[in-house]
Amino acid sequence: MAPDAPTVDFRALLEEERAELHAKLAELGFADGDRTGLVYDPNFADTSQVTAERGEAEALALTLSEALADVEHAIAKLADNTYGVCEGCGKPISEARLEAMPAARFCFDCASRQ
Q1: Model-level pTM greater than 0.90?
Q2: Which of 7, 26, 86, 99 is deepest in the core (most CB within 10 A)?
């Protein structure tokens, strides 16, 4: 192993995170991980409480979908050998940051400026 080679299997971390996000989306009612819309029971009464819960579920699903898109973007970067390179300054992202946030697009300095 080269001295500056990563000691963490980032592909495995990203694949695990992707699987977890798909599972959470499925728990919320996304049909087979489909991110186009939640599936509701057509016999479910549309009361204000249901409407509020639906809104909360859709907001959470949007957040999960965005996180999933970031993970998929990071996996694509692994494939084209640009993973771990800051999209802001082009410098390497620290291994510690990537270990904490495997889908990170920016180094700590660039992320703190945003």
Answers
A1: no
A2: 86
Tracing tokens 């800051």 back to the chain, one arrives at 86
Amino acid (1-letter code) at residue 46: D
d(CA 56, CA 94): 35
In DSSP terms, 85 is beta-bridged to: 92
Residue 87 has pLDDT above 90, yes or no: yes
Rounded CA-CA distance 90/55 in Å is 38
CA 98 vs CA 4, 10, 34, 56: distances in Å:
14, 8, 27, 30
Q: What is the dihedral of CA 67, 73, 77, 78, to 10 degrees?
A: 60
Structure tokens at 10: 């980032």
